[in-house]
C-alpha cells in the first residue's frame, strides 16, 4: 500500500505546483473607432490595459491615426483601410489625423484613455483560486488517507 501512495502524493503535489497560472481571464476586447470625413467617432474612448483599438476609415478621403507622442502611427489610411493598436500601459493617448488635424487636439483629433485594470486582474485571481481549490482538497484528502493507513499499518505490525 505504502509503495504506490507515496509516488501518487508526489505526483499530485507536482501537478499543483506546475499548474500553469491559468488563462488570466483574457477579457481583452477590441474597440472600434470610426474614421470619417473629417472626425473620429467616438472622439474619446475609454478602454482597459491590454485592449485594442481598431480604427476604420469609413470616409471617402484618406486619413491617418497618429499619436501626439509618436507611440503609434497608422500611416496613410485610404477609404476602407483599418489600423489597430494594442495599449499595454495606462494613460491618456492623444492622436490626430496628419491631413486634417494636429497634435494637441487640433482639428481632426481624438483621445484614447487607457485605465489600469483592477477588475480584470481581480477576476483572474479569483478564477485561479477556484480552479485550484478542488485539487488542493484532493491532495489534502490523499495525505489524510495516507497518514491514516500508515497509522493503522504501524499499529498492526
Ligand atoms: Cu483626416
TrEMBL record:
Q: Which parts of the sequence belong to the EfeO-type cupredoxin-like domain?
A: 9-104
Identify the InterPro entries for this entry: Cupredoxin (IPR008972), EfeO_Cupredoxin (IPR028096), ET_Amicyanin (IPR052721)
For the keyword Transmembrane, the answer is yes
Top-level taxon in the UniProt lineage: Bacteria
Keywords (alphabetical) are: Membrane, Signal, Transmembrane, Transmembrane helix
Question: A Pfam family name for this chain?
Answer: Cupredoxin_1
| Keyword presence, Transferase | no
Task: Report the leader peptide range.
Answer: 1-25
Membrane-spanning ranges: 131-149
PANTHER family recorded: BLL1555 PROTEIN
User: What is the protein name given in its UniProt record?
Assistant: Blue (Type 1) copper domain protein
Amino acid at each position: 500500500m505504502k509503495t504506490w501512495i507515496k509516488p501518487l502524493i508526489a505526483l499530485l503535489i507536482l501537478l499543483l505546483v506546475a499548474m500553469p497560472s491559468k488563462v488570466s481571464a483574457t477579457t481583452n476586447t477590441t474597440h472600434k473607432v470610426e474614421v470619417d470625413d473629417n472626425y473620429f467617432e467616438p472622439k474619446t474612448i475609454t478602454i482597459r490595459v491590454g485592449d485594442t483599438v481598431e480604427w476604420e476609415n469609413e470616409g471617402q478621403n484618406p486619413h491617418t491615426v497618429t499619436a501626439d507622442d509618436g507611440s503609434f502611427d497608422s500611416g496613410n489610411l485610404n477609404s476602407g483601410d483599418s489600423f489597430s493598436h494594442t495599449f499595454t500601459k495606462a494613460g491618456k493617448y492623444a492622436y490626430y489625423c496628419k491631413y486634417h488635424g494636429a497634435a494637441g487636439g487640433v482639428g481632426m483629433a481624438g483621445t484614447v484613455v487607457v485605465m489600469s485594470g483592477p477588475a480584470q486582474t481581480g477576476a483572474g485571481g479569483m478564477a485561479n483560486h477556484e480552479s485550484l481549490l478542488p485539487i488542493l482538497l484532493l491532495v489534502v484528502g490523499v495525505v489524510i488517507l495516507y497518514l491514516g493507513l500508515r497509522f493503522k499499518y504501524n499499529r498492526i505490525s
